[in-house]
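Example S7 (structure tokens).
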């Protein structure tokens, strides 16, 4: 395979594991980073997904270096946790702006060339929290639930053009995002998971790669849980 793959938030965690996965498959991979560039066999571009001009420049750079994006993984995300009564306006809007509106910005730009090519794969990284809710994460859960309606709308808009749009909904994953919680809290979360452990980033990357593969050609508008059973039934 030698598709052009763009992964937002590819500097670490799930995004970096996904970049390595696609690079190993022989794809031409570009990743975006916000603060620290990753090292690896891919093109790294600085891009803040909350800034439209950054998104535009990123796609232009990828197109010039590798060609039009054929597989987009919208993965960049942040948390700003807090109970609702203490949550500041900016804690809410900045999380929505990065996690949901950021996905809107990159999907909108990616579909331009996918429509011309009459093919494309879009995978959005949501969370089990978007389906279950989580005390202290109303902003994050809203952004991740929003991705589901967003993806399914795009799946309907672009299905006839051979563009699939799917969501991966991970449970807890061993990355910087969860490490800040500390060992005791992470163990308490793992105890809630039927598979009794948190995931590796590579396990999420595998599901993302599957949704971009030939075997997933007839899957669109799906929400694929990769959560050890934590959210089953939702
Ligand atoms: P990390 O915190 O390890 O990495 C987050 C990535 O997003 C980094 O590459 C970071 O860039 C990038 N990023 C953050 N803000 C922006 C921005 N404004 N513009 C562009 N890039 C940005 O997170 P994970 O790997 O754990 O999470 C990846 C995705 O998976 C997120 O959407 C997250 O919500 C989701 N997820 C994670 C789970 C988990 O348990 N870890 C569970 C369920 C979903 P930089 O390094 O440059 O700051």
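Recovered sequence:
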């Amino acid at each position: 395979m030698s598709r052009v793959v763009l992964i937002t938030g590819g500097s670490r965690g799930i995004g970096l594991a996904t970049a390595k996965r696609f690079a190993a498959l022989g794809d031409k991979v570009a990743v975006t980073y916000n603060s620290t560039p990753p090292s690896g066999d891919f093109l790294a571009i600085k891009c803040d997904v909350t800034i439209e001009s950054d998104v535009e420049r990123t796609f232009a750079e990828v197109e010039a270096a590798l060609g039009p994006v054929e597989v987009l993984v919208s993965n960049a995300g942040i948390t700003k946790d807090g109970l609702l009564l203490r949550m500041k306006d900016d804690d809410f809007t900045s999380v929505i702006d990065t996690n949901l509106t950021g996905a809107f910005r990159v999907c909108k730009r990616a579909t331009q060339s996918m429509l011309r090519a009459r093919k494309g794969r879009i995978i959005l990284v949501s969370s089990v929290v978007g389906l279950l809710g989580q005390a202290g994460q109303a902003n994050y859960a809203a952004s991740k639930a929003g991705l589901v309606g967003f993806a399914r709308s795009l799946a309907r808009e672009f299905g006839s053009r051979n563009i699939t749009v799917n969501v991966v909904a991970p449970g807890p994953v061993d990355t910087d995002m969860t490490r800040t919680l500390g060992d005791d809290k992470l163990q308490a979360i793992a105890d809630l998971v039927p598979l009794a452990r948190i995931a590796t980033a590579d396990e999420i990357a595998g599901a993302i790669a599957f949704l971009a593969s030939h075997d997933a050609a007839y899957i669109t508008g799906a929400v694929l849980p990769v959560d050890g059973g934590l959210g089953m039934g939702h």
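Notes on this example. The two ends are 34 Å apart (CA to CA).
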